[in-house]
Every structure is written in structure tokens, then in C-alpha cells.
Amino acid sequence: LMNVVCFPFQIDVFLARSLLEKLYLFQYPIRPASMTYDDVTHLSAKIKPKQQKVELEMAIDTLNPNYCRSKGEQIALNVDGTCTDETSTYSSKLMDKQTFCSSQAASNVSRYAAAVYKKGELHLTPLHGILQLRPSFTYLDKADAKHREREAANEGGDSSQDEAEDDVKQITVRFSRPETEQARQRRVQSYEFLQKRQAEEHWVHLHYYGLKDSRSEHERQYLYSQGHGLAENTELIKSPSEYLMMLMPPSVEEENDKPMAPSNVLSMAQLRTLPLADQIKILMKNVKVMPFANLMSLLGSGSDSTAVLRCIQQVAMLVQGNWVVKSDVLYPKDTSSPHSGVPAEVLCRGRDFVMWKFTQDRWVVRKEVATVTKLCPEDVKDFLEHMSVARINKGWEFMLPYDEDFVKKHPDIVQRQQMLWMGIQAKLEKVYNLLKEHLTPKKQEAQSARPLLVSGEQRVNMAKAKVKQNYGQLEKEFQKQKAEMKSNDTSGKMDVSSIRIKEEPVSDEEPMDTSAYESLNNGLVNGLHAEDNSTDPLNGHLPGGCIDRVAQELKAFVSSTFKKQFVLTLSELKRLFNLHLASLPPGHTLFSGISDKMLQDMVLDTGCKQILVPFPPQTAASPDELKVYALWEAGDTYDQHRQVLLEIFSKNYRVRRNVIQNQLSQECGEDLNKQEVDRVLK
């Protein structure tokens, strides 16, 4: 019993339990004008209780002016044919009835109830099911079957009745194999098996009672609460909130449907409500490969790194300084491959082999993995996609760079993981009978294993850090030398040769970052100071005898550089020139100051030309990077080919190889082979 106050009225609410688990709500479709849902229209009804499936057969008013009689006769003829018997769907040779089949409108109806209001009292009865009735068109299937039977009869009618019996045909008897547990589970969960089970349930025929029938009147009384005394409703002696919870309990299905943890899209708010071990397991299962620094950032600022390290080792293995999720986490016991049906134990061994290969080298060949593990290509591809990226004509490269910071900070973890990998390697040797070539990396890669694990960006950063360490000492020496020169009254000019520039090895193959030199120069123009209040003859204003020597040295540098590179941007040329200055001895004439204009003029004087490459307008390159200079004549046999190639790139910044080869053949009058084209392009 509960009081509901609706100002200015108060209504008593009662819970009727007589029809509990027996009351259904039928939702009929919008009826046509020729059909009425009254006592006469319900011809028959049947139900499958387990499935909560109902079939109602309702009459159609064929005398209604809206009923199309010719169409009804045609449908009856198609379904039953010309003959009528007990099996006929429409005995009156007219479509005079319609079948409705039910489907569940809601899987959970525990929060729905039927209400009856009487004499200031509201009586509620919980619903056991809500069924939507929709027209069934099975009669069309019957019409198609009749049509096929008639066609088969017409085709077989021409055959002779005296035809001899069919020849004896040989049959093959096969014995079915015993069904495994996994095969049985797949069969039980299949759509065909579920359909068969539903069809096996027998129909229970019902009798329909009209609205005004005495039986209906009797059953309708059960919608009212049979006893209003507290003795019969002791379960209602509760607080209002508890009563509402009883009347409308939370949906069990919704709680079950809500995942215990995020799967494809992670909700960080929901994830952080879980224990730390579960958070790490879910993250690693979704991401599969992650550096330790990224994991700490995802877990939040309050996470203890020691606890995280303890948990991560339970669900992941260390590969090249990064954490890769364990195979048994991705493939739990009693599961199988979605591609080949291989059990989880075999999948874990194959994936462990791939992980172990990446501990030996940054590259793995897919064919080698398939040969050793004997798994299908789809499974091998899944393993590789978890932790690597495919590179054309190279293989699969581990997707993350070597995490040197983690390896240096946690040597104990690294040593423990190495011991675990040694144990895994021993197991793999026994299972796969690994050869010596599988266990040891290639010699060339083994000799240069360390550089392979350090990216170019890391090398540049290391070089920058080294320069910054020496910057303070170099600046002090520079200021000391400058003070000594200013104190010398006999000389009014700065002795540039007294500045010592640190010499570092120069590599033609590996580009270097010159930002360190720019910060070291502190306002120098190509290596010399250019202060506003300086009275020194800089920026090209040199004594007459020095100009020729500077021009000769600069021309020699430009000529030798373009004979090696052939094509350079102004930015790259300035970088190479700064490196050249750093390698020169103190007091060299080029330290007298070279401006950008002098450098560009010298490039044009040495037989080079500026190529106006039409770069896209949205490019992020600097102006110096957009200025492209090329050696027009090198004096070799490829001058003409090179000039044709430069003309092509002056019209488009991106050209296909076949277009270049065709253009070279047309302009030069000869067919170039692949090696010659490669040499020109290089």
C-alpha cells in the first residue's frame, strides 16, 4: 500500500499479485477498415510459452465495401489452387482471414505494469510480457510451393508410364566422426540449431473469450488487489524508496550488457574506477604495445611507478624497452582462432615466437614466421599487426623505437625480463626445433645492433646536448679573446684568426643539424659577428687584396659541393657551408664574412641555375628551402639527361617514374635502361 498525493487529491495504490507471471500485453497493428477487433474476428489462437510466441487468426469482413473481392479470390486461388479440401487455407475460395504472429517488444518488462483505477484506488499488476502482433505472410510461401509443384508436374507429365525402373545407383556410406566439445558448442550456438529448437516446441491452442463474456468479467476481477489488509501485504511495509525499488527493480539485462571494462573504445573515467591491475590489463589488451612513460600518463598522476611495474610484468613482456601484452592475455584458455580454429595454446606459442624474434632484431620476415610456426597466414598477420608495421620490400618493423630511457632507469627489470626470454627461447627450441640461423641474428645486423636501436632524431638530440655542454667554455674563450683584441691599441681591427672553432668530423652521408652552430655564433653572419656598433670591416667590405682570395675559396667550395650533390636548396647549401667553416683552420680567409647574396651569386657564377620548382602553396617549407639550385653542366655524359630532368621538375614538383623515362627517351633520342635512369635520378 502506498499513498500518491496529486494536489489536491490523494490516491491509494495497491499491488495486485493474482495474475503475476500470467498477464501479457498485446499490441495490435493499425487495423484496416475491413477488420474489427471484436469478439467475432478472433477465430483461433495458439502460444509457445517458452518462447512467448503467439499466433492469432482473425477474420476479415469480406462484405465491407473497402474489401477488394477480386484480389481476395486471386490470393486464395494462388494459395490453394482449384481443389478444396481440409488442408486448404481458405475454404471459402476467398481470403477471409489473416494470421498475426507476435514478437517481443521489450526483452525486460519488469518495470511495466497494467493499472486499473476504481473508487479512488489504483491497482497495479506487473506485466509478464509485451508482444507486438504483426501480419504473417506464410500463405505466400505456400503459394510459391504450389506453383513449383505445378511446374514439376507439367514437366514430368510427358514421361512414359511404361518407362523401366531407374537403374540401381551406387551409394557411399560414411561414418560420422565423434563430435568434439568445441564443435558441439559451435553447433549449439548456430542460428540453424536455435531455429530447430524453436520449431520443436509444440503449440498450445487457446480459446478466445470476448470482452463481454462472463469468463472475461471473472478474470478481470483479478486485476484488483484481493486483500487490502496489512497482514496480506507485509512486503509493502517498507520505506517509499524501497517500495519503488520493488515495484521497478533495476534492469538485470542492462547491468549484464554493460561491459565490466571498456573494449574497443576506452572510457578513462570508468577505467580509473577499477583496480590498478585491471586498468593495466585492459589498457595493454587494447593497445598491445606501449612505452612505460605512456602507460604512466594514462594511469594518472597519482599512480605509483613501483606498483605499476609490479602489475605490468604480470600481463606484458619487455621487447626493445617497450611493453608488449602477453599472448595468454589475448588468447585465453579454451578459446580458438577465429580464422583457422587453432586452439589458444598453439596461438600463444606462435605469437611468443614473433615477440622473441623482435627481441633479437627490429625486423621480422612474415614468411619465416609462417614456416616455423606452421600457422595460417591470417593468424601470422594478426601477430605481426599487434606489434609491428609492414615496410615494402623489407619486412615487418617493430612499431616503436628502442626505449633507452627505461632500460637505463630499470636495469633490474630488464635483467629479469631477459631471463624470462631465455626460458621462453628454450621452450621454443624444443617445440619448433629451431635451427641455428633462427637463433642468431645476421652478422651485419649483430655488429650494428646498437645504432639500429637509436633513431636519427635521437642522434641529433645527443649531438645538440654535447654542443650545449661545451657552449659555456667556448663563449668564455671568445669573450676573453675579444677583450684582448680591444685592449690592443696598435690594431684597430679584430683578429678573426684568434677565434678557435671546434673541429668535428664531417660526414657526407649523414645530414647534421646546424642549430647548435647558429646559437654558438650568437649573431654571426656565416661565422662572423655583425653587431650594429661594430667598426670592423665585415659582411664583404674587405681590403682589395682579400676579395679575390675569398672569391676563389668560395668558388672552390661551391664547385666541389655541387659536383657531389648536383641539386641543393639554399638552406642545405648554407648548412654545408657552416660545416665547411667549422672544419677550416683558424685564420682562414672565408672567416672574413660571407653573406647569403654573395653565396647565391657565386652559385650562379659556377655554372649552376636556379630551378623554379612549383611547390604547393600550402607547404610548410621555409623560403630558403624553396630556393633550389642545380648544376647545369657537369661535363659528363649525363648533362643532357640531367637538363631534361630539371626541366621536368620546373613544371611539376612530383612526377611519376614512367613519365620521366618516356620524356628522357623522347628528348635524348635513345632508350635508357633502368640502371641509367636510376643514375640520372640519383
TrEMBL record:
Cellular-component GO terms for this entry: RNA polymerase III complex
Every DNA-directed RNA polymerase III subunit RPC5 C-terminal domain range = 442-682
Under InterPro entries, the record lists: RNA_pol_III_Rpc5, RPC5_C
Regions annotated as coiled coil: none
Annotated region described as Disordered, given as residue ranges: 144-167
List all Basic and acidic residues biased stretches. 144-153
GO biological process: one example: tRNA transcription by RNA polymerase III
Q: What is this protein called?
A: RPC5 polymerase
